[in-house]
């Protein structure tokens, strides 16, 4: 699992470097697309492994962080001072012509897409006649809602980071 995470970080860092330019050209876009496809494939492979990671208590995760070498800790601290991939994508989209007159607002689009997805999940669950299926779908909806809440609500995100 750790090797896959390192590969994902390697690919995302390479994408970040490709996007941290004044003008992202077509060749860079092809490289970015290829690297994102690789990351997607890794995430698909790791999907079941993430369920295992969810069982790690926060104290055990903290013990893992404490076990990092000084070099790894320095890399983490250094990475906090560079633009994130999300910031670079947002900046790139803001300069992409034709998306919106006032500039592209990634977070608003993402929030709208998430709300549409969650509404669809809830509606699908509520339409179920079988109570067991309905309950399972509502449980899945609640998990998805909480997951996206931790991304979209700064207070919730900060609360989870403190744990």
Task: Give structural attributes.
163 residues; single chain; mainly alpha
Q: How many beta-strand segments?
A: 0
Main structural class = mainly alpha
Percent in strands: under 5%
Pick out the low-confidence regions. Answer: none
Element order, helices and strands? HHHHHHHH
Report the C-alpha radius of gyration, rounded.
19 Å
Span between termini: 23 Å
Could you characterize the architecture of this molecule?
It is a single chain. With 163 residues, the protein is mostly helical. It is built from 8 helices and no strands. The mean pLDDT is 80.
Q: Would you kindly provide a brief summary of this structure?
A:
78% of the residues lie in helices and 0% in strands.
Task: Draw up the topology in text.
Elements lengths: L1 H18 L6 H28 L4 H9 L3 H10 L5 H10 L11 H21 L4 H22 L1 H9 L1
Helix pairs in contact: 1-2, 1-5, 6-7, 7-8
């Amino acid at each position: 699992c750790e090797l896959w995470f390192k590969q994902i970080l390697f690919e995302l860092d390479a994408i970040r470097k490709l996007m941290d330019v004044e003008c992202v050209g077509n060749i860079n876009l092809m490289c970015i697309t290829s690297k994102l496809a690789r990351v997607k494939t890794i995430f698909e492979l790791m999907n079941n492994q993430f369920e295992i990671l969810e069982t790690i208590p926060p104290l055990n995760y903290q013990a893992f962080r404490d076990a990092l070498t000084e070099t790894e800790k320095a890399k983490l601290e250094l990475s906090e001072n560079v633009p994130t991939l999300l910031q670079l994508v947002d900046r790139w989209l803001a300069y992409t012509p034709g998306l919106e007159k006032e500039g592209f607002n990634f977070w608003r689009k993402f929030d709208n897409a998430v709300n549409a997805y969650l509404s669809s999940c809830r509606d699908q669950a509520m339409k179920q006649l079988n109570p067991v299926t309905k309950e399972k779908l509502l449980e899945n909806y609640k998990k998805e809602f909480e997951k996206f809440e931790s991304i979209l609500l700064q207070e919730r995100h900060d609360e989870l980071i403190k744990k």
